[in-house]
Every structure is written in C-alpha cells, then in structure tokens.
Task: structure prediction
Amino acid sequence: MANIRPPAVADAFYPGNANKLRAMIARYLREARAWGPPPKAIIAPHAGYLYSGPIAASAYAPLTGTRGRITRVVLLGPAHWVALSGLAASSAEAFATPLGIVPIDQQAVTQALALPHVHLLDTAHRQEHCLEVHLPFLQEILGKFRLVPLVVGDATTAEVGEVLDLLWGGAETLIVISSDLSHYHDYATAKQLDEAVSRAIEALCWDEIQEEHACGRVPIKGLLAVARKRGLHAKTVDLRNSGDTAGPHDDVVGYGAYVFTDEEYVHN
Result:
C-alpha cells in the first residue's frame, strides 16, 4: 500500500507515542459517562486532546463494545487550511496514525465522487487536523474499520445531506461529524452560545445554527437534516469548553459531544 496519508498533528494535538496515546484515550474513556445504546452518528470536537479529548470521549464511550459490528466510518469535518467548494475526498489508500493504518473505503469514495459537489483534493487533507484527531479514538474502540474521510468547504445543507444519505448504510456504518463550538469568547458568553447550539442540535433545527456557533456548522447542519428525515433523536452528552479543561476563562473554545440514535432520550 503505497499511497498513505501520514499523520500531520501527532506530537502536537495528541501524543505521537503509541503507548502514551493508548493510555490517554483509555483514561478519557474511563472517565466519560456512556449514555444509552450505541449511536448511529456522533458529533465530537477536534482540538488538542488536552483541551477537547475528555469531551470527545463522551461521544465515543457509548460505542465501547461495538468492535466487529461497526466496520465503516464516514467522517466529515470543516476545512481549516484550504478554501474549497463542496466536499473534498482523498486519493489516499489509507490514513496513518501512531496506532497503525486505517484503510480507505475506495468503493464508498467512488460513490461519493459521482456527486457533482464532491471532488478529489488531497491538499485539503494534507494538514487537516479535524479528521485525524478522531482516528485514534476510532482505532481503539472499533479495531479494524474502513474510513470515508471528507473535508467540507463551501457547501449547502442539502449537499452534505445528499452525501450522508448516499453513504448512510446500516448498522455497520458510523457517521462522525467533527466540530468545535464557539471560538474565542469569554467564558460566560461561550457558555450561552454553546447551550443555544446544543438546544438546536437536540431539536434537529439546522436552520438555527449560525456561523458563530460552530466551525463545523455546515456538516452539522447536513447531519441534522438527515437525522430528522430518518427519525433519529439527538442527545447532548457533554458540553464544556477550554476553560473547563486546560485553559483560561477569558478566551475559550467550546466543545460539545452529541449522540444520535433511533431511540428517544429522556431529558433531565
């Protein structure tokens, strides 16, 4: 396998040493509270693990025990480095992390590329952290799986929804949306904004999600539209910010963990 996308942010966003990385993920998962049945889809943050790892673990914890049952992950996140229209697929045969190689589902990528708003653009993936930081969590929980990595640029809710519908699959497929929430507000303002977007996510109201709410608002909105159409229910399982984990309170980034299942959650 010659065409492998190497890790871009190991030793920066997360440990580059495999043993240290496994230990960190295991600790986060132990400390997370698992809510309900394994979800069909999740939304989880993509900052450095020191900041957002505990919140991401809250989204992944309900998937513990699904090894061998979930064999494909459709992973979408927002473009941070390259301006692009639509969604960018990768020509790589696999993505690498310190924990090993994750093969790409080439058939699914070919299916997605048949849509006019999906394109091959390796430069969109080369430095992009928003997809990569999820892979170690997925590797530890799922073991072997195939990946469909898509970086989302200037796209509509309908365009993202069309891709998700196409690749939705059955119980073997997990949908992961990578997104942080509000950026660089004081603690109180961030809490207010993040609580508002969480209410919109739980209500599946994609039209209420604004630019200031989340960097991954475009893929989030696409998921919410499809989730509503398919009768899924959303639950906020964790909502914190960098001031709660590893940073000051005067300039924070918000992080939320959300799970989507066909079983309705009881809200406290």
About this structure: The domain at 15-143+158-184 is CATH 3.40.830.10 (Protocatechuate 4,5-dioxygenase; Chain B). The longest strand covers residues 252-261.
